[in-house]
Write a structure and sequence with these properties.
- Helices cover 20% and strands 23% of the residues.
- The protein is α+β, with helices and mostly antiparallel strands.
Length: 286
């Protein structure tokens, strides 16, 4: 699994969520920038945990997968992608290790249910005619390059209200017609990517203008809201601490700043279990 460098939930988004936690004192005596950075680290760890829980990276990224398959008599192969959902196949090479041939025309590549990649490698030569069952094609090595996962990026520059284009930090996984959510506390909105957008371009044209203004760093995501909530719950569980003489703050909160436990369960465990349940639909399909 590739290294995750940006969390799925931004610091402002987490602070806007009703967690009842004080995140301005994570580092005793630290400046605001240090508190923000440490909260970002916690969110990154919670996001990485979500990836591990699902058995795959949820955010959009480039995948290189190598398999050995046997083409059917027509030269077709069907490969179950190890990371889902598959958004686009960007390269196919086949042959033997060290002598792979690139498939120049990818227009015939077929993606089924965002997980099965079907591609023709051309006519397959068979050995001499034999009686009995049809001969099988020799196994061939295939390298697939594809984009999988959901958009998980942020704005690279501010955007004014009524903007027809958004500039993102990482355009991986953005395609025409995609609906993306701008996770901007107090100004959240969903936008649709324009039909003429060229994938891979940082300037993302929109089908209709934005409603509100958004600052640089605003989260731009194609991930379901349940994934965001799971990351928030896991981050809260990671921030809980053991009871102290001063505990008991915010007694009205459903979960406060302590990890006070009974003999059977802990608040940390309950939050993690809820996060796991939210992530269940996003687990890797093998």
């Amino acid at each position: 699994m590739s290294l995750l460098t940006q969390p799925y939930v931004t610091v402002p988004e987490f602070r806007a969520a009703p967690t009842w936690l004080d995140t301005r004192n994570l580092i005793e005596g630290g400046a605001d920038a240090q508190q923000d950075a440490e909260l970002g680290n916690v969110l990154l760890r919670a996001s990485a945990w979500a990836n591990s829980e699902c058995g795959q990276r949820l955010g959009a990224h480039q995948v290189v997968e190598r398999v050995r398959v046997e083409p059917d008599p027509g030269g077709w192969v069907s490969i179950h992608a190890s990371v889902q959902p598959v958004r686009q196949v960007t390269g196919v090479e086949y042959g033997t290790p060290g002598a792979l041939t690139a498939l120049d025309d990818l227009s015939g590549v077929w993606i089924e249910d965002a997980v099965q990649i079907v591609v023709s490698l051309g006519t397959v030569a068979f050995p001499g005619l034999e009686f009995g069952s049809a001969p099988r094609a020799a196994a061939t090595h295939v390298q697939l390059d594809y984009v999988a996962g959901h958009t998980a990026t942020k704005l690279a520059s501010p955007s004014a209200a009524g903007a027809a284009t958004l500039t993102v930090a990482d355009p991986t996984g953005i395609y025409p017609g995609d609906v993306l959510r701008l996770w901007d506390p107090g100004a959240e909105e969903a936008v649709t990517v324009a039909a003429g957008y060229a994938p891979g371009t940082a300037a993302v044209g929109l089908a209709s203008p934005t409603i509100a203004a958004h600052a640089a760093g605003c989260g731009v995501s194609g991930l379901e809201a349940d994934v965001h909530q799971a990351v928030i719950l896991k981050a809260v569980s990671m921030l809980l601490r053991e009871p102290t003489a001063a505990s008991g703050d915010w007694p009205e909160a459903p979960y406060g700043p302590t990890a006070e436990a009974s003999r059977r369960r802990t608040r940390m465990g309950e939050l993690s279990a809820e996060a796991c349940a939210l992530l269940r639909p996003f687990r890797r399909v093998r």
